[in-house]
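Bench log. Compound arrived from synthesis this morning; before running ITC I wanted a structural hypothesis for how iron/sulfur cluster sits in the protein. Inputs:
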Amino acid sequence: MNILVSSCLLGTKCRYDGSCALCNELLKLKDGYNFISVCPEVLSGLPTPREPCEIFKNRVVTKSGKDFTSNFIDGANQTLEIAKSFDCKYAILKERSPSCGNSKIYNGKFSGKLVYGTGVTASLLAENGIIVFSENEIDKFVSFVK
Ligand code: SF4
């Protein structure tokens, strides 16, 4: 079964600060599933490292005020096409990201405060019928697909 996964969770150093967010619990699943690794922000052409972005009033902006909404939408669309081409019915994405966050994202004021919300890619995938889990919901994912 093909599962779409945020690249940073698999150890790729593609986060805004050039780090990864390796998730060992996810790696333990690897034998049963074929992970399709994607980073929507890199797909959109943004460099690594890059200025961190947050979602504020439906726009994706940096602390210095640059608007990267179109990049994030482009990355989400490319990710959806990859998911479709590999027939991914499920995704496991990095929580809190303005692209990949599935239930919590930062509030858009760069204050470190989280709010309920979804990133641009997570939203588009869900709108297209792909069931999205975060790296904090791996047990839930395993129970769901059994
Ligand atoms: S866009 Fe998603 S995959 Fe890329 S670094 Fe951010 S959370 Fe990870």
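What the model suggests: Strands lie at 2-6, 34-38, 53-56, 59-62, 90-93, 104-106, 114-116, 131-134. The CA atoms of residues 5 and 114 lie 22 Å apart.
ITC booked for Thursday regardless.
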